[in-house]
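User: Reviewer 2 asked us to show a designed sequence for the structure in our supplementary figure. I'm pasting the structure tokens here. Could you produce the per-position amino acids so we can include them in the response letter?
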């Protein structure tokens, strides 16, 4: 194969899943063994696109309706989303074939469509909030170490913090933070104006709630 002139190369095929309202273009050409996995992930995206859009609405915003899933044979790490394209490490999928939660996390980034400038910990926290609260609510969660953990740890730590705020302090914060981030209007003061507490005060209350 190394000496193939290209004349006999297989044509690249992109599998389109879904329809006008929500679709996924699956490009497994560079990792053909992941074709079937890619189709499953694409079907999942078609199902979750409207759900995530409904969970993260904002005035005047129309969520994207199409996502491309590309499997990168050389990529290290897990995956990233840029614009409407999710690039996924083929090696990661081979090692973690059950990790569809990762796809929902990345698809949330596509729906977020935030301009640059918002705090990364909150952007990642909201993506994992959608993942762990809505997509895989029964999956085991990390045990937080009050001495070391911070809301700025992002990902599941921030997601669990957001869930606690929603359930035990002020409902609707995720939707409002989402709208602020999307509008490029996030400020730390928003926590106080929405909840009556600073983010540090909220974190202290959350940590206290975890004490036996
Ligand atoms: Zn992310």
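Assistant: Here is a per-position design you can include in the supplement:
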């Amino acid at each position: 194969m190394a000496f193939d002139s290209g004349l006999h190369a297989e044509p690249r095929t992109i599998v389109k899943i879904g329809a006008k309202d929500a679709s996924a273009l699956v490009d497994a050409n560079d990792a053909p063994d992941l074709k079937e996995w890619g189709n499953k992930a694409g079907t999942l995206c078609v199902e979750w696109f409207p759900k995530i859009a409904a969970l993260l609405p904002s005035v005047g915003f129309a969520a994207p309706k199409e996502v491309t899933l590309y499997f990168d044979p050389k990529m290290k790490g897990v995956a990233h989303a840029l614009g409407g394209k999710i690039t996924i490490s083929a090696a990661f999928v081979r090692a973690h074939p059950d990790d569809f939660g990762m796809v929902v996390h990345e698809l949330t980034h596509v729906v977020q469509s935030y301009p640059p400038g918002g705090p990364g910990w909150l952007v990642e926290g909201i993506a994992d909030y959608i993942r762990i609260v809505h997509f895989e609510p029964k999956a085991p969660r990390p045990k937080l170490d009050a001495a070391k953990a911070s809301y700025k740890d992002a990902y599941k730590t921030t997601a669990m913090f957001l869930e606690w705020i929603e359930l035990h302090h002020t409902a609707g914060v995720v939707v409002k933070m989402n709208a602020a981030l999307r509008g490029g209007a996030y400020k730390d003061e928003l926590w106080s104006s929405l909840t009556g507490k600073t983010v540090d005060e909220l974190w202290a209350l959350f940590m206290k709630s975890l004490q036996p």
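For the response letter, you might also mention the following. The mean pLDDT is 95. Residues 35-55 form the longest helix (21 residues).
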